[in-house]
Amino acid sequence: MPVNIPDKLPAADILRDENVFVMSNSRALTQDIRPIRIGILNLMPVKEKTETQLIRMLSNSPLQVEVKLLYTKTHTPSHTSAEYLQTFYHSFDEVGKLDGLIITGSPIDHLKYEDVDFWPELTHIYEWTKENVTSTFHICWGAFAGVYYYYGIDKHWRDDKISGVFKHQVLLPKEPIVRGFDDEFFVPHSRNSYLVNEEVAAHKDEVDVICEGLNIGPYLMMSKDRKNIFVFGHSEYDTLTLHDEFMRDKAKGMDVSLPENYYPLDNPALPPQNTWKAHGHLLYTNWLNYYVYQETPYKFD
What we know:
CATH topology: Rossmann fold
CATH superfamily: Class I glutamine amidotransferase (GATase) domain
Low-confidence stretches: 28-32
Shape: globular
Helix content: 25-40%
Structural class: alpha/beta
Strand content: 25-35%
Number of strands: 12
Order of helices and strands: EHEHEHEHEEHEHEEHEEEHH
CATH architecture: 3-Layer(aba) Sandwich
Mean pLDDT: 89
Number of domains: 1
């Protein structure tokens, strides 16, 4: 089944060119089916790239997914026009209940949470999800912010950026979110923040670590009630996303290392190979099926 996205959203043409089944709102209205409603709270500066990546991940499912793009009203994006937001995005007071919500990362991991201009609004959204969302999927900075808000687990800073494609292992193989996963799998990461294992373990009665990365800590954590999922990597990344970030930082004169386990022979002149796409699709398909569709009521209240 397709993803249902706004008419004329730029991501639609990109995804159709990749043979992704995309349906416009106008066509979806002719189908007698209740799609699951997934909100994407897009906190990234360049919103088109992130929304395309996430819609791609949501597309490989037998379910019809209606995507609602969301923004914070208390922050003005620097790389997205007001016209674009007005055309394709909504605030939370416009959408009502959601079956699922994705909260993206944001390039602000150097800031304390309380110093982020939209933090008060985000904490209000966290509270709103408790009654209005079946399952919330937090990514990278969004995951760090989520475990801080819910459990008080704070992030720590590394001067050397965690950048590359890292090997991970499944710790709880019977959890449906990893159904079909290999014992070891690869995920891209791009961040300076990390969690201390001992601090996470202190909250073992509240949250489970489902997967972890080799030498980089937890990758996938879930609340005990399974309503909140925290993913500290970027399974949605395109093949060249890490390359684009590396070249951007080099152009700024930053002292950055090559992304690990990414370029063939560690040579940035050679095109990288995508080793994470299948598990990325499986992660999102499992989330949609087992934590959203199977748990959500057929009709909203």
